[in-house]
Amino acid sequence: MNEIAVLGNGRVGGNLATALTRAGHQVTVADRTQGAAAHAARTARVVINATPGAGSLERLTALREELRGKILIDVSNATTDDPDGLPADLLYPGSSLAEQLQEALPETRVVKTLNTMLFPVMTAPAVLTHPPTAFLSGNDPQAKQTVHALLTDLGWQKEWITDLGGIRTARATEAAILFVPHVIRSNGFAPFALSIAR
Question: What is the DSSP string of 136-191?
Answer without folding.
Answer: EEES-HHHHHHHHHHHHHTT--GGGEEEEESGGGHHHHHHGGGGHHHHHHHH-S--
